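Recap from last week: sequence in, structure out.
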Amino acid sequence: MVQRISPQSEDTSLSPRRDTTVALIVAAGESRRMGDGLPKQYVEISGKSVLRRSVEAFLNHPLVDAVLVAIHPDHAEHYAKATAGLSLFSPVMGGATRQESVRNGLESLVDFPPTRILIHDAARCFVDAETITRVVEGLKHQKAVLPVLPVADTLKRVDDNGVAETVSREELFIAQTPQGFDFDTIRSLHLAAPEGATDDAMLAEAAGIRVECVQGSENNFKITRKEDWMRAAALAATPLEYRTGSGFDVHKLVSHAAGAEQVVHLCGVKVPHITGLEGHSDADVGLHALVDAILGTLALGDIGTHFPPSEARWKGADSAQFVTYCAEQLAERGAKLVNADITLICEAPKVGPHRLAMQARVASLLGVDASRISVKATTSEQLGFTGRREGIAAQAVATIALPLTQSPIEHTL
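Predicted structure tokens:
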């Protein structure tokens, strides 16, 4: 008997008296074509295994009541890891061939026979909800349904490395999965069929049963070759948008208070100087500009919004904690800093000897490689307040990569 692991509710349990649809995912292959490494159905793509992606496509579909996976007897550990936390039937052991694995899966359901069965190859892990819907809807009127795609390329029959003829593609289509069937019908066909079928629709064809064709999907490809893995990685990658923010800050130079350290704080580094910077915190003009730039990328206002000078707790505060706060805001949204560019504008002190230390400090605060941080300095040619050594100014530009959670149209409004 097949049993469900941790059913979510009574509504998901099966019974012979209920109209139900079960997905049977075939994942019993040893993937010898992939070499001696991990079987391909358990290889992760962007942090999620091929098998889990296939299983979740059916688990999350409103027209599918339960999912059963046929696995290789030696893959129990791989399977447990790949499906951890999912509510599934206990796996059924597959056989030496795909046909035998499917038959084992069908036989394991006889005590809880569903009305419909969707038979799917685990290696087609980008099956979309629309394709599943079309197959299930087709089973309302037919006993066998097959998703297909028309052949787009010109076909040639080759004989002895030469073209023998051009084959018409007008009536040729590529078969995909899930292939949907009336459960009793496909079970009977599997019990009576000899070995050799490469897909389940062949059994229905041989028995004279009409196989209804519905539209498949270009992304519902079977991972087989190296090129397929590259395509899969591209599909699984989270779409990103890139945002740029800018910041500008100024602090006045004043004489050091009695007993104060003879330094200015610039980009997280203490730089010796005859005068100090005046501000509510440590007046690190470089970090303040950077904070505004990063907050700008997230449309979160400015530094004064988050660390108001009216609050005593920020008096004399190390500006490093403001940058750390920005790093936390980026992490909460799944965003990553692409790069930051800080320009200090002053006649003195000399920034060059401290530039690499500043770059390393900023990178450390943001948790990125120092190659993503630029710190440089310029003068105002003795013009203006910076030219008169009355203060130091800084400007910063930051670019982040942010997961795209809205449609491009929404982002342009």
